[in-house]
Specification:
Elements lengths: L14 H4 L3 H4 L4 H11 L4 E5 L12 E5 L3 H5 L25 E5 L8 H11 L4 E6 L9 H4 L1 H10 L3 H8 L3 E5 L2 E2 L20 H5 L9 H17 L1 H6 L7 E2 L3 E6 L2
Parallel strand pairs: 1-2, 1-3, 3-4
Antiparallel strand pairs: 4-8, 5-8, 6-7
Length: about 260
């Protein structure tokens, strides 16, 4: 039985519903992109698995994108290649087809992590690059005190970093990626020092975890956060984050080499 949603989304989140404005809120951040570029090194041909709307997809290399969600494929800008409709655990490419492969903010969506990583390794001659979040570090973000249910959802969905690293093999490195204060990629922690942004329902919906909790939770969260911003309580507790140039949160770059 297929577990794909109506628009083709192959993971646990239905991007036909939540991905409508995804590209508006989730623009690649240059500082984070630099980590990926360094990991790609001199690779010329790159496979991007779970490519979505094209965030972090290099434009100076030959890229093949794979994305099962029709909604996300439709949001890819014209300067990027059209994405292949396929899933991580069954990549339609020959062994060793690419110099490198990458997957950003997607492994937590995969129904079979081990199979997806094995497929990436199979079709890749060089590094396999995974940008993801460490479920053990999600509670560093102040959202944990306002909407612990969302943090709990994320912690259940994101695979442990050690599991990914062990699956990719012994020649694997894990690097913490600092999140810039004005991060243009609107995953939750991107707003660590700009709490007002999370009052926007669209900003929340661009983070799939919010689609797994009751809609009333988002409304309650927004009311509580607005109250604390207006009273100054949020700034009393977390105001230093508004001036902190980067946040050491849950973001990790995992690079598996052959």
């Amino acid at each position: 039985m297929s577990n794909r949603h109506d628009d083709g989304s192959a993971g646990d989140a239905n991007y036909g519903v939540i991905g409508v404005d995804y590209a508006r809120y989730r623009q690649p951040d240059p500082a984070i992109a630099a980590f990926i570029a360094r990991a790609l090194a001199d690779a010329r041909s790159v496979l991007n698995v779970g490519a979505g709307a094209g965030s972090y997809e290099p434009v100076d290399r030959q890229v093949t994108a794979v994305e099962p969600s029709a909604s996300m494929r439709a949001q890819r800008p014209g300067h990027l290649p059209r994405a292949v409709d396929a899933v991580a655990q069954s990549l339609p490419f020959a062994d060793g087809s690419f110099d490198a492969s990458m997957a950003t903010f997607t492994v937590h969506q995969w129904p079979d992590l081990a199979a997806g990583l094995a497929e990436m390794r199979r079709v890749t001659r060089g590094p396999v690059i995974i940008l993801t979040c460490d479920p053990a570090a999600l509670d560093r973000f102040w959202l944990a005190s306002y909407a612990p249910e969302v943090i709990a959802v994320e912690a259940r969905r994101y695979p442990p970093i050690g599991t990914i690293a062990a699956t990719l093999g012994p020649a694997t490195t894990v690097t913490s990626v600092p999140i810039p204060l004005h991060c243009t990629d609107g995953f939750g922690e991107a707003y660590y020092g700009r709490p007002e942004r999370l009052l926007d329902p669209g900003a929340r919906l661009a983070n799939s975890a919010w689609s797994f909790v009751d809609a009333g939770l988002g409304e309650r969260f927004a009311a509580d956060l607005r109250r604390d911003l207006e009273s100054g309580l949020w700034d009393q507790r977390h105001g230093q984050l508004r001036r902190q140039p980067a946040f050491d949160g849950s973001l990790k770059l995992i690079v598996g080499r052959p």
